[in-house]
Amino acid sequence: MRLAAFTALALTAALLNAEERIDTEVNQKIRKEATEGSQVMKTLHVLTDRYGPRLTGSPNHEAAAKWAAATMTEWGLKNAKLEPWSFGHAGWLNERAAGYITSPVKDNLVFEVLGWTPSTKGTAAGAAVLLVPPEKPAKEELTAWLNENKGKLKGKIVLLGKPVVVPVSFTATNKRMEDDAVRKRLEGGARGGPQRPEAPKPEPGKLTAAQMTEMIDPWLLANGALVKVQDAGMAHGMVRAFQNRTYDVAKTVPTVILRNEDYGRIARLMGDGETVTLEFNIQNRTYPEGKTTYNVVAEIPGTDKADEVVMLGGHLDSWHSATGATDNAAGSAVMMEAVRVIQALGLKPRRTIRVALWSAEEQGLLGSKAYVKTHFGTFEEPKADFGKLVGYVNLDSGTGRVRGASVFGPAEAATVLKVVLAPFEDLGVMGASASTSRREGGTDSTSFNAAGLPGIGLMQDPIEYFGQTWHTNLDTYERIVPEDVMKASTVVAATVWHLANRDGMLPRFENEKMPAPVKPETPPPSAPATR
Ligand SMILES: [Zn+2]
């Protein structure tokens, strides 16, 4: 039984292999151009150093988008443009921020400003007060606590929550995945891209962290707190700062995420009975025009099958604590590089190759969802072009080499990708798997999957992604591994080239086998929505 199944599989693979007609000569040319002629680090430099951070709705993001479109036009791509869509919130950026402990010792504080929060009025100076709300309270419990403590806020800098204890870690982490581990993950049907963390089940009668914030923020504002300070809770000065979920600076006080070491120090000094005084000077700016934001698209037009499209992309927007190098200037630069390589070689694809750089991925895959809705619709409510998309290849897991691919579709779709990727095993690519999940996940390929379209997520070596750079103040150009992004560009260019030139579309689910759509989950309240 097993042997028969194996033989059948091997036979299918062999047949497909013959059918795929891998163009070895083009693959060689792509390798050479993506290595010797590589522009990917230059693109990364501009996206990070010149335009980072690229927060959605900010002028930085828009300038990066315009630069990407102009650069791809210079490279010879066609129809490069910014496609507007409604983000619905004003843009926001922090321009400068400084903070100090002024008594009983003098020192600088290391922190990041929470997105979409207001500036201080000049310098905000005051005594620190440490307030620890009850854990997972019921609404009445928190209301009582807020009433009890509201007299402690006026003119104070409020440290909210117990200091987090981050023990020294003795665990070594693998920066690369072992080949066999990758193969096993692919055999197990692993998803390609990062996944949204499972939402903790809300406990009946208990407030979630987001609901607590909804009650605490207006309380701080109404009772005269100067600044809200939260513990970053990470080792080695790492700070992750997301956003005020109302996106309205009028609804909260100036808020910072202080590195764990400073938060702990202040708390320990206060524990000795000392009065600790702090100072913050924060200048943020909002941009009403940011309510409209943009996805960037550009094309290499196809020839005899020009109306069919192979898409590739990543999100151009970033968080604001650093310049967004691994998340996701890397993905954007690799995708730009892949089309540059094809264009530079003068290759004329049969199908149109279209690159897309999304906005507002970090706020919930909003840019790619808007695009899919406008251009393709869903399996249940298709637009005219729903059947014209071969696949959408996405990169969004940091700087690491590509190790495999996961495609939303039947096993035959994964088989095609396996054959296309097989010549790149020496670069670390171990194969492909098929996914039947229409669950909206941690990155933009799942906006396509959710619609019933062939999203292709790429699995990458972790390097320092989830441990260090992902959404932190350490996500800078220095953390990019040049060799890895060059390899990724090679693999992506070859993949989209072959998908654009094979005789057929990528196999899709037969209508009666299309998995049912999944109702989008609410992201976990305390965890970031996306990667
Ligand atoms: Zn990302």
Explain what this protein looks like in three dimensions.
The protein has 531 residues and is of the alpha/beta class. Helices cover 34% and strands 21% of the residues. It contains 14 helices and 16 strands. The chain has helices at 2-20, 24-36, 40-50, 59-74, 139-149, 179-187, 209-222, 260-271, 325-344, 366-375, 411-421, 445-451, 465-469, 482-501, and strands spanning 78-86, 91-103, 107-108, 111-113, 123-131, 157-160, 227-231, 255-258, 277-287, 292-300, 305-315, 351-358, 389-394, 402-408, 432-435, 455-460. It has an 8-stranded mixed β-sheet with strand order 1-10-12-11-13-16-14-15, sandwiched between helices. Strands 3-2-9-5-6-7-8-4 form an 8-stranded mixed β-sheet, covered by helices on one side. Helix 5 links the parallel strand 5 and strand 6 (157-160). Helix 3 packs across helix 9 and helix 9 (325-344) packs across helix 14 (482-501). The longest helix has 20 residues, at 325-344. The radius of gyration is 25 Å and the shape is elongated. The protein starts with a helix and ends in a 30-residue tail after the last helix. Residues 1-6 and 524-529 have low confidence and may be disordered. Zinc ion is lined by residues 315, 327-328, 361, 396, 443, 531.
